Every structure is written in structure tokens, then in C-alpha cells.
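Recall that a protein's primary structure is simply its ordered list of amino acids. Everything else, from secondary elements to tertiary packing, is in principle encoded there. The following example makes that idea concrete.
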Amino acid sequence: MTLARVSCAVVLALVACGKERQTAADGAAERPGVEPATLEGGAIVSGTVTFSGTPPANPPINMAEEPACMAQYDGTPRDPRVVVTDGRLAHVFVYVKDGLSAAATYQVPATPAVIDQRGCLYHPRVLGLVAGQRLEIRNSDSLLHNIKAVPARNRGFNVSQPAAGMTTERSFSQPEVMIPLECNVHGWMQARVGVLPHPFFAVTGADGGFRIAHLPPGTYTIEAWHETLGTRTATVTVADTAAALLDFTFAAK
């Protein structure tokens, strides 16, 4: 396997080279009447998303009226808008924005993505779906949550879950980056869903890592999206079975 190293300059961002991190899930279920691309082999683009400087303070959340949630935190809970651990940035949606064949189709994963309402916050804060993939919405709190999707291109929904253990499934048919999710009961509860026509995406965890696998040979625009810090983009060219290392750096606006 050959290894390509890529760097680029972006306003307010430094791009350097890093290590491979977490893996995006492969598809499993076919769309009716469509011959999907096979997700085997191919190139890998991976790297790390970092934060330069002092991260902005996340605002405190007043959960005084929800003691069951408040009890799950040591001290005052905070809205996890910017989560930085050892300089590495979580909750960044990294995806192939451009470069794939317009004629290509891909399998829709048979396994649903999951978002949980726990401790009066959404887990995960950011997630990705292939268009048509099911989204399983769970309530792990023993109190009322009301999850509302506010898309621009897709059909929205507003689902009430008044008890712990409740689950609901929804899906989005059209690509859209990003769709806000919110709770009508608890105004601080926010999440974002990226819906794509392909499975070439990842979301960074606490280590800031991402890994996008099975890419066909080609030149791609990769975008890293963060809910408050904006976007960073880079171009990468990969050959078959190659591995490219690509890092993004964000800074406070």
C-alpha cells in the first residue's frame, strides 16, 4: 500500500499530517432496483482534527427543574458545543463533499443509527446517516423529551417520548448537511445529523480522529464541519488501496 501525505492552507486553519483514527460504518442493505457500489478495498483517508489556542467556555445549563438529570453530573453541567481533549476536537463531521461519480449508488445500512436522550443531552451530539437509513431515537431518561427535526430539504418530525425506554424510528430521504435536532421541553438540548447519498463520512470522538475507507481512486474535496466553529476543506488525491493522511485545525472565531 502506498502512502500519500497531503497538506493545505485554510484561513484560520493549519493542515498537517496525523494518524489513522475511527472508522465509518459500511452499508448493508440495498436500495430497491439499484445496483450499489461494492465497499471493498479502495483507498483510506484518515487524520486528526485539532483545536489551536484556548477553547471557548461552554455555557452552563440550568437543570434545577430536572433533578434526575442533574444528579448525573459532578458540578454544573455544560452545553458541550466545543469539546477539546488534549488539543483534539470532538463532534466534527468529516465527509466527502465532492469528487464521487454522480452515477454511483451505495448500499443503505440495514442497521439503524442511534441517538439517545440521556442526562437531558443528546448522545451523540453529531452523527451521520446514509439517505434512507433508519434513525433510532431512544429516551434513557425517566422524564418527558420531545425530539424535533428541523430540516431544510427533508420532511421534519416532532416526536414525544414521555418515559424511559421508549424508542422511535425515523429516516431522511434526501441528502442534507446538517439537520438540527432539538427538544421542545429542554431548550438547551441540541444535536446535528448529516445525511449523505454515500457512506464516506466519519464523526470525531474525544481523540479527534477520523477514518474514511473504501474510496475509489480519484480526487476528492473533504470537508470538516463543526457546529460553532464553521468548516474546513481540503483536496486529496488517492490511488487504489492507497492511504492518505489529512489533518484539520480549527480555532476560535
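Helices lie at 67-70. The mean pLDDT is 87.
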